[in-house]
Each structure stands twice: as C-alpha cells, then as structure tokens.
Write a structure and sequence with these properties.
The protein is α/β, with parallel strands linked by helices. It is built from 12 helices and 7 strands. The chain has helices at residues 2-16, 20-24, 26-35, 40-67, 88-96, 98-101, 116-129, 139-148, 153-163, 180-193, 211-214, 217-228; strands at residues 105-109, 134-138, 167-171, 198-203, 231-235, 251-252, 257-258. Strands 2-3-4-1-5 form a 5-stranded parallel β-sheet. Strands 6-7 form a two-stranded antiparallel sheet. The longest helix has 28 residues, at 40-67. Residues 239-243 and 258-265 have low confidence and may be disordered.
C-alpha cells in the first residue's frame, strides 16, 4: 500500500510539472526498466526520451490541424512517373526546405490533376515535421478572410497564423476574379508577408494572365514584383512563359542541383 501511495504521489508530481505523458505511462516504464535492469541514468534517459517524443508528436499534430490542409498527402505519395516536369532529385531538393531558409517562393502552374496541390500540401506537411509553421488556404477563402478579419474572430485568427508562419500555401489562385478592393487587400497582405514568409501558389494560369484575376495592372505588377523576385516557377504546361525568364532560381537547369542564391539587400 505504501509503495502504491508513493507511486501515485510521483505521478501527481509529474503532472504538476507538465510531464503528463510520463505520469500516464510510469507503470509501464518502471516495469520495462526493471526487466531490462536499467541503471538510474538509463531509466531517466528513457523517461525523458519518451516525453520528448510525445511532445514532438503532439506539436506536429497541433500544427498540422491549424494549417488546415485541404487533404493529408505527403511527398512520398507523389508519383513522379505520372509527370515529366519534376525529377525525383528535384522533389528531394524541395523536401530539404533550404529554399524556405533562403526566402524563396514557389509558383506551381498547370491544369487540374497534375499534382500542384499535392506538392504544395506535401511541402507544407514536411515543413511542419521539420519545425516550421505552415498555413494553407484556398484563394477564395483567403479573400473572404481578408474582407472579414475586422468582424470575424475566425478570420482574424487565421490571418494572424498566416502572418506568423514560415510557409504559406495559396491554392487555386485563378479560381475567381477579384474586385479592385479585394485585389488591393490581397496586395497589402502579400506585402506584409514579403521577405518574412515563403509562399507557395498553385494556379491554372501563368502570372502573365493574373491581371484577369486582379483586374488592376498596377496591383498585378506590384504583387508579381514581390512574388517572382526570388522564386522557382514549376511549370506543368508545355510552354514556358516569356515573362518568367528574369528571376532568381533554385534549380541549376544543367545539373538539377541547388544554385547558390544571390541574396539582395
């Protein structure tokens, strides 16, 4: 009885210092350590490793939920053989996320069904696993959030999370045309993210056609200046866009390896 009381007291103390996972699994940990004849140091190490592993898993689950991905798909599930645009080596380079550290954006262009959203979500999930904060939103939902953030707590919360993120994925940029006020809100938002958050955009039309969506040539040019300055364009269409030639790039086209970025002040 005394041993049971002592064990319960230990569990209560563990919970009080926010080691709830250890408290809940203490019986099993003690049993395992006794059967394996662990030293005190090994026993303590096993407890701490278990607690840290659980906290990391909880973090990943929490941040993934907050990211609000349209689906849960990983880069490992992306079938490279179904397209000719990206090699497996390039997929692996993107997965390393050095481009996020370097402040690059990605624009994924192509018709429906080529895997643009899959790649965007997969990179977002990989970013969260690597300790980055990521957020996902479809373009029509983003416009709604920007218009209602002053009156709706849910919109305000999502906008704050996006602004605090390391990677922001905008899906289906050409889904709907904007009014001038909406385009201006979008520009102001991109301007806030510029230089502090990497952005992934998926679109079924190239940037040269985004004027149709934004409606204002000046706003379109200003947004493109911020997005395309340090950007990799991954084009699933057959033809390359003439306007996308003058940009810094992640990939060395000759060797498929990451180029050393030319950082600008």
């Amino acid at each position: 009885m005394k041993a049971t009381n002592t064990l319960n007291n230990v569990k209560d103390m563990l919970k009080s210092i926010k080691l709830s996972h250890t408290a809940e699994n203490l019986d099993e940990v003690i049993k395992t350590s006794e059967s394996d004849e662990l030293s005190y140091e090994s026993f303590l190490k096993a407890i701490l490793e278990s607690e840290l592993k659980n906290r990391e898993q909880n973090r990943i689950e929490k941040w993934t939920k907050q990211a609000a991905f349209s689906e849960y798909v990983t880069l490992e599930e992306f079938d490279v053989s179904q397209q000719k645009t990206l090699t497996q080596k390039q997929i692996n380079q993107l997965k390393e996320l050095t481009w996020v550290e370097q402040g690059y954006n990605l624009i994924l262009l192509g018709p429906p069904g080529v895997g643009k959203t899959h790649i965007g979500v997969g990179l977002g999930i990989q970013a969260i696993k690597n300790g980055y904060k990521a957020q996902f939103v479809q373009m029509n939902d983003l416009v709604h959030m920007l218009k209602t953030q002053e009156i709706l707590r849910s919109s305000r919360t999502k906008v704050k999370r996006i602004l605090a993120s390391d990677l922001f994925i905008i899906d289906d940029l050409m889904f709907m045309a904007m009014e001038k006020h909406e385009a201006n809100l979008f520009f102001q938002f991109i301007n806030k993210l510029y230089g502090q958050t990497s952005i992934i955009i998926t679109s079924n039309k190239g940037p040269e056609d985004w004027g149709e969506l934004l409606g204002d040539p000046a706003i379109t040019t200003a947004i493109l200046d911020r997005l395309v300055h340090k950007c990799e364009i991954i084009n699933f269409f057959d033809d390359d866009s003439h306007r996308l030639k003058h940009r810094q790039t992640i990939f060395d086209n000759e060797s498929d390896t990451l180029k050393e970025p030319v950082l600008t002040k």
